Amino acid sequence: MIEAASTRRPFVAEPMLTVALSKGRILTETLPLLAAAGIVPDEDPAVSRRLILGTSSPGVRLLIVGPTDVPAYVLHGGADVGVTGKDVLAEQEQAILYEPLDLGIGRCRLMLAGREGLEPSRAQPRVATKYVASTRAFFAARGQQVDVIKLYGSMELAPLVGLADWIVDLVDTGNTLRANGLAPLETVMEVSARLVVNPASWKTKHAAVRRLVADLAAAVERQGARA
Ligand code: AMP
């Protein structure tokens, strides 16, 4: 029987939420939080080569991207929501993304480090880092002039070959610094993974985004209570 138009339930499409996740270290800690919020990927992202994954929640799909690309995906509408480190967000020129939740995972420190027991050889020390904006802000706040050299990885090498006096890099256990004869000097920033939201999605998909933020906040709280 054909239903009369007036009795048909209006079709209200559940807005599809696209969540950009950072692959690598943060991913393994993000998945349990998502699972606690009722979102389980159809395939294991650690094994699958697919970069878009469906989930147990029909309104939610996941993108697997590099941590430094998460802000671009969320800012330009490729994803509504993203997860990435504070270290990455601090490098963005403008803080346009909403950052409603500290997920409390991927904890580490952005640190200034140098060769064990050695003072800088230059009057204006050279600092090698991937984190140029955070490094500049750190030294500007101290009123200290430095030359910042942008590197894309293996920063620990720079002081060993005289390329730089100091480095600014992420430190977790400190093993990488120690293995290269370097010592931590000062903390530039405490780092953890954050949930970021596209401002337009915050408005147009408000209910779905708010529900995700609330569910993840509850999962973070439960995890904190267990720790
Ligand atoms: P560790 O030896 O445990 O101090 O780790 C330091 C190395 O791991 C450095 O090469 C860092 O760039 C990298 N690292 C540490 N923590 C993180 C993190 N949360 N996210 C990405 N890379 C990290």
Features:
227 residues, alpha/beta, D-Maltodextrin-Binding Protein, domain 2, 2 domains, six-stranded mixed β-sheet, 11 strands, 30% helix, disordered N terminus
Word description of this protein:
The protein has eight helices and eleven strands. It is of the alpha/beta class. The protein folds into two domains: 3-106 and 192-226, D-Maltodextrin-Binding Protein, domain 2; 108-188, D-Maltodextrin-Binding Protein, domain 2, CATH 3.40.190.10. It has a six-stranded mixed sheet with strand order 2-3-1-4-11-5. Bound molecules: adenosine monophosphate. Residues 25, 85, 106, 108, 169-176 line the site of adenosine monophosphate. Adenosine monophosphate is lined by residues 25, 85, 106, 108, 169-176.
Q: What's the helix and strand layout?
A:
Elements lengths: L16 E6 L2 H12 L15 E3 L5 E6 L4 H6 L5 E5 H4 L8 E5 L5 E8 L10 E4 L2 H11 L4 E4 L6 H4 L5 E6 L3 H5 L2 E10 L1 E5 L1 H6 L1 H21 L1
Parallel strand pairs: 1-3, 1-4, 7-8, 7-9
Antiparallel strand pairs: 2-3, 4-11, 5-11, 6-9, 6-10
This protein binds adenosine monophosphate.
Adenosine monophosphate binds next to strand 9 and helix 6.
